[in-house]
Amino acid sequence: MVKLRLKRCGRKQRAIYRIVAIDVRSRREGRDLRRVGFYDPIKNQIYLNVPAILYFIEKGAQLTRTVHGILKKAELIV
């Protein structure tokens, strides 16, 4: 099963998160299938690769609660 979830990057106290499609059994920093965006909570920046996200959702990928909130904030989903 594939999920769209956050992968932590950046340095200590300055976290930046990648939004990735990843197998459920992988760790948070594990190998991802594809990077589909990033989220910077400090600068409040969001970049989304919309076609890739829609592709994975169409194929049955599940969203974590945080990624769902980010996509809702970006008005990609309802």
Short description:
The protein has 2 helices and 5 strands; from the N terminus they run ββββαβα. It is an alpha+beta fold. Strands 4-3-2-1-5 form a 5-stranded mixed sheet.
Salient structural properties:
78 residues; alpha+beta; five-stranded mixed β-sheet; 2 helices; 23% helix; globular
What does this 3D model show about the protein?
- This protein is of the alpha+beta class and 78 residues long.
- The longest helix has 9 residues, at 50-58.
- The model has no long low-confidence stretch (mean pLDDT 92).
- The chain has helices at 50-58, 65-73, and strands at 2-11, 14-23, 34-40, 45-48, 62-63.
- The protein contains two helices and five strands, in the order E-E-E-E-H-E-H.
- The two termini are 23 Å apart.
- It is globular, with a radius of gyration of 12 Å.
- A hairpin with a 4-residue loop joins strand 3 and strand 4 (45-48).
- The protein is 23% helix and 42% strand.
- Strands 4-3-2-1-5 form a five-stranded mixed beta sheet.
